[in-house]
Amino acid sequence: MKPKLELNQCFNQLEQKIAEFSQLLRQQKLLAAKVFELPPVEKGQEHDEITQISVNTLEHKVALDKAIKLYNLLFIFDKSESVSSKAAIRLPGALCFSVSADNYQQLTALIDEINKLKHQLKYIVTKASGVDENKRFEFVHDNIHGLITLNAYRTLTYVKSPNSVRFGWANKKIINKITKAQMLDKLQFSYENSRTPAGYQPSEWLEQINQEIRLIASLREPVTLKTQRPVKVQPIARVWNSEQQKQTQYACPLPLLIFLIEPIENNIIIGDLKDYDASNITLRHKPKSKPLELLIPRLNLYRELS
Which residue in 274, 281, 38 sits closest to 168, CA to CA? Predict the structure, then answer.
């Protein structure tokens, strides 16, 4: 099957299953619901440093309606024109339902199917299409115009019969090792194929890449190169299960789906998410790491120092 046809078929199935899931979810007995609205990212502010986030708490049916609306938000046409389409909307929180064992199986099977389709959609775009990373945007939007890929890829998380769900904030970095040869290949590809960024003349841009190629080529082996990209502060959920005496931490861009199997023996505690203030954050544990030297700022590329 051709990638374009496969992409459209996968997306159509995903839309159908999300709609089916939304309807089924509304039929369940809602015990508690709490979601936390975060300020939208306006156009042009995607890369601004975040130092404060104000949280607006919604509860009960209003929270459920907000969550289901976000599950179905897949196109930029359904967003405000002032809101960035490059930044995904985040809605941390938890929706808690009382369900029978049969309903639990039906719901989780449908969630698993939705997540499988989301993974498949991402695989088609990033792998099966054979399209270069720089041309994926055109591939997606030529076939599914206006798709919010971040929302389409984002999976749903469900938890069975926990005792409590509490919320917080996490700062982290995405660190990837890359070999000298891989970095040189990447830079050479950019030299031959990349568009000139705003603020550069074509000749200036090519000269900069040339300088970067010479810099990496001059490094003596063995050399350890890393890209270290900071990720903006993220909401997280900490789920406690007293029977297992275990706490599990989840990224929480969407409300967790909590299913309590009938008959229910204990009530669940759903905590609050406090406003984020970077000046009040204290790191509990900072792992030891080797010192790094920044080589190419635009790529967040570092060399590990011995």
Answer: 274
Which residues face 42 on adjacent strands? 83
Task: Quote the Cα angle for 23-258-253, to 5°.
Answer: 85
The predicted model gives 84-97 an average pLDDT of: 86
- Of 138, 125, 118, 137, nearest to 253 by C-alpha is 118
- Rounded Cα distance between 74 and 151, Å, is 6
> Dihedral sign, CA of 260, 68, 48, 201?
positive
Pairing of strands 225-241, 56-59: unpaired
Contact 165, 221 (CB under 8 A): no
Neighbours of 7 (CB within 10 A): 23
Instruction: Spell out the residues 6+ positions from residue 178 whose beta carbon is closer than 8 angstroms to its own.
Output: 186, 225, 226, 227, 301
Query: Before 255, cis peptide (omega within 30)?
Result: no
Claim: this prediction has a pTM higher than 0.70? yes
Contact 170, 34 (CB under 8 A): no
For residues 211-223, average pLDDT: 93
Q: What is the 3-state secondary structure (H, E, C) of 148-177?
A: CHHHHHCCCCEEECCCEEEEEEEEEEEEEE
Cα distance between residue 49 and residue 52, in whole Å: 9
Q: 114: helix, coil or strand?
A: helix
Pairing of strands 301-304, 292-296: antiparallel
- 92 with 35: CB under 8 angstroms? yes
